């Protein structure tokens, strides 16, 4: 059966017309997005996760629209299908730290509670800096090679500090999170934040939060990032052991691994220049964020000592 015809039957909709085949369509209730899922367990995780985050935070998420029978999805020959509201108007970042803090803080809190009983997550790969360093090619630009060789020693220091922090925090649990990247996924409905969650596999790691905060810092600067951390802390105890655990994640030099992998697959001089520029930018953002986060975590301690 044609997928639009099946949607008509399952949801009681009419006047349907594709905007983009198998992705978005017009209906009498506005534009809708279709998502196809091959993994039913992942789909079930996303249904439950969206419901919990939305109910606990009050923030709008692209939850699964229920069929006429009350189901969050249906099955077709291409797999399981979910339907979502498609919102186009972007949500602003300027002076909206409270909204973002409520969303991210709730996501972290729910993710931590899931750590006991959620088994549907992807394992993150550990960073082997020695193996990464050994991947530097002899034929890359000599100046780029020199920069990477010098960066290696700082990267080693960052890994050592990260492991030292994590060893002191053991055995504190990590939250289970799905991707928080792409701030462009934030839309608005009548001035309210609407977060588009995607369909990524969850991971037991702070890495999605790190990617989010690095993008936030790059777009909005230091003052806004501090305000956001303060707002997140209202919903999730980030000041304390979990903040230190997150700091250990921010210390890990993934950008060093990424640049070597990209250089390995690139042969053109122009491509190499672009890759190195991207590395410089990410390296400085990562370094600045670590310093900001360290100062933010120590702020209360300094105030207490000063009294």
Set down the secondary structure blueprint.
Blueprint: H1 3-11, E1 17-20, E2 24-26, E3 32-37, H2 40-57, E4 60-61, E5 74-76, E6 79-85, H3 97-113, H4 129-133, H5 142-169, E7 176-177, E8 186-189, E9 192-195, E10 203-204, H6 207-233, H7 241-251, H8 254-264, H9 269-306
Parallel strand pairs: 4-9
Antiparallel strand pairs: 1-2, 2-3, 3-6, 5-6, 7-10, 8-9
Helix pairs in contact: 2-3, 3-6, 5-7, 6-9, 7-9, 8-9
Report what the structure shows:
There is one protein chain. This protein is an alpha+beta fold. The chain folds into two domains: 18-85; 97-306, Aminoglycoside phosphotransferase (APH), C-terminal lobe (Aminoglycoside 3'-phosphotransferase, Chain: A, domain 2, Alpha-Beta Complex), CATH 3.90.1200. 53% of the residues lie in helices and 12% in strands. The strands form three sheets. The protein has a five-stranded antiparallel β-sheet. A three-stranded mixed β-sheet has the order 4-9-8. It has a two-stranded antiparallel ribbon with strand order 7-10. The longest helix is centred in the last third of the chain and has 38 residues, at 269-306. The protein is globular and about 60 Å long. The N and C termini lie far apart (72 Å).
At a glance:
The protein is α+β, with helices and mostly antiparallel strands and 307 residues long. It is built from nine helices and ten strands.
